[in-house]
Write a structure and sequence with these properties.
alpha/beta
Amino acid sequence: MRFGKKTALLTILTSLIFILAGCHKSNNNNTVIKVGTIAGPETQLMAVAKTVAAKKYGLDIEIITFSDYNTPNEALNDGSIDANAFQHLPYLQQSMTAHGYKLKAIAKTFIYPMGLYSKRYHTLADIPQGTLVAIPNDPSNEARALLLLQNAGLITLKEGGNDSSTPIDILTNPKQLKIKPIDAPQLPRTLQDVGLAAINTNYAVLADLLPERDALFVESKNSPYANLIVVRADGAETINQQHLVDAFHSPEVVEAAKKLFKGQAMPAW
């Protein structure tokens, strides 16, 4: 009988230890959010948000860095990360359509204007016939670049173009420009080999190119291509997600963006 009481007591104590351990683990998990970013200045911005989130909200932002535009949405969709911050709405929509991802945007971050850059020419008027023009090869940024070329007066697109336009939608091309889609991170390197390139600001800044200083033509400040914080769409928004947004919208991140993007990043919220 005495043995039975000891056994029961040990069982109860063991159970309590597992319960407490489980609670401790759960509490830790409840204060962590994994966020995907693209390597470069945007990751540095998220690092500032991480400091703010820890100090103000007790939230641990674990930053997962990616090197291309394709994998952050895949990782978010399969649960490897909890959120990402790298894309604008047209890219998100096309990614969900193409892959069946169930994602949603919960906040805007910054507008990083796309610009037309050249190492060979100083004005758009200098660009000769048959110039090779590099643009991003992902569908939404490809369309964005074509719209930029149209706004610069270099081409026109069927029905004025839209966020699904491709090179086959070019209606007029007076200079007979040769359009070459290339991986977005590689575009700054192509400037040695092409006459003109449409480059996103996050990659331009890494190559010491600033839209207002170096671009021959730059996207309007009214651009609809604001970047987003994106999460899975299969559940209600959580307090961690709200704290992530609040931390990223903090004055500390805005100030860091001014320095990292040298005044070229515009808050979109």
